[in-house]
Design a protein that fits this description.
The chain is mainly alpha-helical. It has two domains: about 30 residues; about 90 residues, Cytochrome C3, CATH 3.90.10. The chain contains five helices and three strands. Strands 1-2-3 form a three-stranded antiparallel sheet. The chain is elongated and about 75 Å long. The model has no long low-confidence stretch (mean pLDDT about 85).
Length: about 130
C-alpha cells in the first residue's frame, strides 16, 4: 500500500504530464476559423431575419459571388464595409437609402428575379 506522500507525487506528475500533452495538442492542432460569415442575424422591429450566408455563396447553394450583393467591393476576397455604415435605420441619417429599403431591394428583388426564395414578409421576418 502506498503512503499519502507517494500518492500525491504520482498524482502531481500525472497532472503535469496531462497538462503538457494538452498544451502540445492545442498548439499543434489549432481550430480553423470559419469562412466569412456562415449565418447573419439582422435584428429589426418587423421580426429578425436569419440570413444563411453560406447557402447563398456556396456552390451547393445559390453560388452567388460576393460582388453580386456587396456593391462596395471591387474584387472577390475584398472585405465589404458593414451595411450599417452608410445605410442607417432612421430617415435623415447616413448616405444612401435606409437599411430596410436597401435590404428589401437587394434581397427581395433577387428572389423575384431569380424565382427562388421567399418574397412575402412572414417568410423572412420570423424570429422575434
Amino acid at each position: 500500500m502506498m503512503d499519502s506522500k507517494k500518492e500525491k507525487t504520482v498524482a502531481y506528475c500525472l497532472a503535469g504530464v496531462l497538462l503538457l500533452v494538452a498544451v502540445v495538442c492545442y498548439a499543434a492542432y489549432p481550430t480553423k476559423p470559419p469562412e466569412p460569415p456562415l449565418r447573419v442575424m439582422f435584428k429589426n422591429i418587423a421580426g429578425n431575419v436569419f440570413f444563411d450566408h453560406k447557402e447563398h455563396t456556396s456552390d451547393k447553394g445559390y453560388g452567388l459571388k460576393c460582388t453580386e450583393c456587396h456593391h462596395d467591393i471591387d474584387k472577390e476576397g475584398q472585405k465589404p464595409t458593414p451595411c450599417g455604415e452608410c445605410h442607417k435605420a432612421e430617415e435623415g441619417e447616413g448616405m444612401g437609402p435606409l437599411r430596410s429599403d436597401a435590404f428589401h431591394k437587394q434581397c427581395k428583388g433577387c428572389h423575384e428575379e431569380g424565382g427562388q426564395g421567399p418574397v412575402n414578409c412572414s417568410a423572412c421576418h420570423v424570429l422575434l
